[in-house]
Amino acid sequence: MPLLDVRDLSVTFARRGQRTVRAVDGVSFGVHAGEVVGLVGESGCGKSVTSLAIMGLLPKQRGVTIDGVADFDGTDLLKTDARAMRDIRGRDVAMIFQDPLSSLNPVVPIGVQVTEVLTRHRGMRGEAATKEATALLDRVGIPDPARRLKEYPHQLSGGMRQRALIAMAVACKPRLLIADEPTTALDVTIQAQILELLKELVRDSGTALIMITHDLGVVAGMCDTVNVLYAGRVIENARRKPLFYEPRHPYTTGLLRSVPRLDAGRGTPLNPIRGSVRDVLPWPDGCAFAPRCDRRVDACVGEPPALVVGYDGHGYRCVNPTPQGAQP
Amino acid sequence: MFRFIVRRLLQLVPTLLGLSVLLFIWLRRLPGGPETAILGERGTPALRAQVRRSLGLDEPLLIQYGRFVKRTLQLDLGTSISTKREVTTEFLLRFPGTVELTITAMIIAIGVGIPLGYLAARRRGTWLDHASVGGSLIGICVPVFFLAYVLKAIFAENLGWFPSSGRQDPTIGATHITNFFVLDGLMTREWDAAADAIWHLVLPGIALASIPLAIIVRITRASVLEVLGEDFVRTAESKGLTERTVRGRHVLRNAMLPIVTVIGLLTGGLLSGAVLTETVFAFSGIGAFLYEAISNRDYPVLMGFILIIALFYVLVNLIVDVSYSLIDPRVRVR
Ligand SMILES: Nc1ncnc2c1ncn2[C@@H]1O[C@H](COP(=O)(O)OP(=O)(O)O)[C@@H](O)[C@H]1O
Ligand SMILES: [Mg+2]
User: Fold this and answer.
1) Domains of chain B
2) Among B22, B34, B213, B241, which has the highest number of CB atoms less than 10 A from its own CB?
3) Which ligand 1 atom is at minimum distance from the Cα of A45?
């Protein structure tokens, strides 16, 4: 039994005067305790919407419909009412966002932003809360934590800010942590440090981590299992090794091929995937990747490709998959 | 912070000097003069010249201005040409009423405007939102004096809930120390006098509040809507904080920045805008006195009044800047 079991999650946005967007379309995946699960895909494929739906943070407006199940240890997070979600968020499930500067309140000291979680979920106040907050900042590698607590976000560097946000997220030792592109806004050297920190934290505390990224390097370095998203659907899911060595979906294959390689030698052309996600589909059903796909056959445009589950749970949605053994 | 305030107060000196030069020249250029008001149309040129001489208006402008500056520096605003009393005495008598009225209007505008604007933003698209946006449009459009008349006709004359004129019922026989009637009532512990003064402030206060209220509702709504879409609000929600914490610490605190600026601008304008409302409610503030001063070309009164308004503007601005830096550490002053 996974800690979090997402089944058939769909999110649609219907805005007056605009085309209805099915941002997430029947996504299913599981996360076990202590496991790092990757959600990978290019921007706009529904990664953030998926995580916000699980957190209950999508705007509660007319026109936003969420279907499916997100079973977290017996509780369906999608059916839990707003009050109960406030108790779960920050305590059992926490989240780290992409842009650390805009994710911190500019007019509230870092210390208050850390202690407010401790006060809310652990009932800590005053001295005790400050002491714990200092320990938390120290734990996420912020030097001179006592002084940093009194400072404001604009006085910290980008990496420090993301560390502070991580401190807030892990303050109550959540069982599940969702990191939505936590390093995208950071310098490369800082990226590595932050990833290292996250790895360390989940290893030490047994927290399950959903790692959202568009960077295959991050996946290779951290994830136990990977779900590749395309246009709101999981088009391939596998454990890390099979995914990297034997990708079956042409999109995944293309993603892996488009990564520049050191061993390829100079002058070797890169292999980008043609077109972009925004290409309009000439067919309502069928495979969304078909317009950009080199392996397209007639069957691609008929109906949505069914999930094929192969050896060791390696699943993909493709009628003409990349042959096994073909080196990406 | 202290040094910042002192520096800002020092910056006031050149501002006031420049303003006074402009005013001095401008007032003297107005057609007619105090002698016309005193003598009427019948005054012979000789008589006029005599009156001008007695008021010291025949001397070169530069000398007149020099005398004005010297006097003002000694906190002496001169003598009113029409009432023959010290301008400072007149002001101490009449300004408090206007200030009380302005403060009342601002309390109403802020106290109602910010919560209403916040709710409109939070319940965007509901009837409450539409009603407050529409209502604020009406509030901006309806002329203040018209609203004042309507309020007076309905709530004072028809229903009799509020007094229709004046600042206090004279039969109470209240003691006056500062001429701020509410304050006086509190200081002397004459609670009924204070209550009566407040009672008299309600209708003119509401009339005067209408425009700032409408503006504050709109700016609060816009500002809150903008902050609600910010990433840090989502972060706050992701921590499971209570709605109260999210609202107070994360949304309102950030939304306050533009609101504070607008409140400062509005308060400055209110003091001069109070004049019209005072007329409708026969409220003895500075309004009627000032009106007479203009028709009589009562130079010392006009100069004094405008200088005080300018001083008030600058002080309100200073308060805005200080509160701005208290709210936002990024603009914190040293
Ligand atoms: N609040 C919203 N209203 C309408 N459409 C939205 C909203 N949020 C996201 N979308 C759409 O959903 C799709 C997926 O977005 P997102 O999950 O943010 O992508 P990403 O994988 O880059 O995180 C995008 O096409 C986006 O335009
Ligand atoms: Mg995203």
Assistant:
1) 2-73 (no CATH), 96-327 (1.10.3720.10)
2) B213
3) 21
